[in-house]
Amino acid sequence: MDVNQQEFPILSTLPAQELQAHVDSYILFMKTTYNVRYVGFAVAGLFGIYNIFISGKRVTYSEKNIIEMTMLTLGVLIIAILIWFLVSILKKNAALKKGLRATAEKHALDKKSFLKEFNSLVIAQYGGKGVYKI
Questions:
Q1: What gap in Å lies between CA 101 and CA 116, rounded to an integer?
Q2: 30, 92 in Cβ contact below 8 A?
Q3: What confidence tens digit (pLDDT) does each residue in 67-80 have?
Q4: d(Cα 80, Cα 87) in Å, to the nearest integer?
Q5: In 1-134, at which residue ranges do the beta strands (DSSP E only) sit?
């Protein structure tokens, strides 16, 4: 990865492979956070389907129980998927922070300014919110 020395003086001193590894970790972290949005869209779609096709109709008692169990099962499944994404996001975030901290210590860099430059670089190129406190 080629960074501008005037814009990123600290990042330009790092080896390109090391910086690229951190950027790749950030990209992987951001892709995982975007997966939560897809689950949100699925929940909205299920809610809409339920309200349009099921909730306003008369059903027998046995059909009502089947519908309730189906919705409960889908709810538990969605919660389990969200928990899985949360654990995955936390693991990737912790690994990224650990790598950034190790790089800052290895090259004797100021952690705050290093993190500020890294966040400026990845937010400008890939979006997201950056990394908080290493």
A1: 13
A2: no
A3: 889 889 998 999 99
A4: 11
A5: none
